[in-house]
Design a protein that fits this description.
By secondary structure, the chain is an alpha+beta fold. The protein has 5 helices and 5 strands; from the N terminus they run E-H-E-H-E-H-H-E-E-H. It has one domain (about 5-140): Ribosomal Protein L30, Chain: A. It has a 5-stranded mixed β-sheet, with helices on one face.
Length: about 140
């Protein structure tokens, strides 16, 4: 089983600090509703904590990851085999080493985000911050 974080950018570029903007560039999240996948390292966790007031994140399951790669994955080499990609991700390879672009462009979620909107944390009914395993539901709504 692989542990990867799925990070979805929720808010735009208006009035954000330069360090947050630079972190979004490093995470390949250049626009709203973009998703990128990152392994669980302390460097990635620190970057995620920097942007958590503008994005939502959580641990993605393998079945949703397979569906995401099949539907929205873009390759530099041609056809993508999701099962092979997931197997090689378990061997500590990155998406870029496998020839995949680490930016998935998603649609806005069907029936919208949570009730309190995009400026409140997930813990009190909003969208931002850590969702843990509930990120899968949001990704399915956005595919």
């Amino acid at each position: 089983m692989i542990i990867m974080y799925a990070i979805i950018r929720v808010r735009g570029n208006v009035n954000i600090a330069p360090d947050v903007k630079k972190t979004f560039e490093m995470l390949n999240l250049n626009s709203v509703n973009h998703l990128s996948l990152w392994s669980e390292t302390k460097e990635h966790l620190k970057m995620i904590k920097t942007v958590e007031n503008y994005a939502t994140y959580g641990n993605i399951s393998e079945e949703v990851l397979t569906e995401l790669i099949n539907k929205k994955g873009k390759s530099k080499k041609g056809k993508i085999e999701a099962k092979k990609v997931i197997k090689e991700l378990g061997e500590e390879k990155t998406l870029n080493q496998l020839g995949l672009v680490n930016c998935f462009r998603l649609s806005p979620p069907i029936k919208g985000y949570e009730r309190k909107g995009i400026k409140k944390p997930f813990s009190i009914g909003g969208v931002l911050g850590d969702r843990k395993e509930k990120i899968d539901e949001l990704i399915k709504k956005m595919m």
